[in-house]
Amino acid sequence: GKWTGCVMPPSHLTEVVQGIADIDQLKRCDAILSGYLGSAEQGEHILGIVRQVKAANPSAKYFCDPVMGHPEKGCIVAPGVAEFHVRHALPASDIIAPNLVELEILCERPVNSVEEAVSASRELIAQGPEVVLVKHLARAGMSQERFEMLLVTKDDAWHISRPLVDFGVRQPVGVGDVTSGLLLVKLLQGATLRDALEHVTAAVYEIMIATKAMQEYELQVVAAQDRIAKPEHYFSATQL
């Protein structure tokens, strides 16, 4: 992939949200989803937005996708972003969705198994969020032949897996982003955590197989839109 452009001024985010506040519509905002940050300062403005939205709608949730870089895919984060997520975004979030490497950074220790991932997730929960989604267990999973995720709360944990989709050396980007977005949508629609996890796993798999079938690098979310809404595949989550 190739990325160009400049880092958006942090104040731009605040100004957009203030525009929504000016027409008295923040009370209809049910969630804030943050992902890749161009700077740590952007993160500080996002937390200000979270406070502003929750003041207007106390039931609104903050879903933090703590992107901390993926050099193999050309994704590099600015200095201070990882520290921002550890020190500020984590305790402010209601739901946080790290991959395995990000989970290790957040809990400041290695994670090498599903059991350790559950334990690490609960360490994060003790600091603020109610729900932790580990978007990709990778080497900490039960099988290197499957794509595995974990959803953890204070009292429950669910493990789920689906087939890997082989794209060779050029893996598509944005899988984590669409996973976070779809999970948040399902939860806002009223799905249980388990049902949301199962739907998202199937929906993302539909996107992946559609993308491979079309021999594309960009995720084919439009081509797969009907199967995102009603996946043809089903994967069952196991309660641990």
Automatic annotation (TrEMBL):
Gene3D superfamilies: 3.40.1190.20. It catalyses: pyridoxal + ATP = pyridoxal 5'-phosphate + ADP + H(+). Transmembrane segments: none annotated. Pathway: Cofactor metabolism; pyridoxal 5'-phosphate salvage; pyridoxal 5'-phosphate from pyridoxal: step 1/1. It holds the Pfam family Phos_pyr_kin. InterPro entries: PM/HMP-P_kinase-1, PyrdxlKinase, Ribokinase-like. Residues 28-211 form the Pyridoxamine kinase/Phosphomethylpyrimidine kinase domain. Belongs to the pyridoxine kinase family. PdxY subfamily. Homodimer. This is pyridoxal kinase. It comes from Enterobacter genomosp. O.
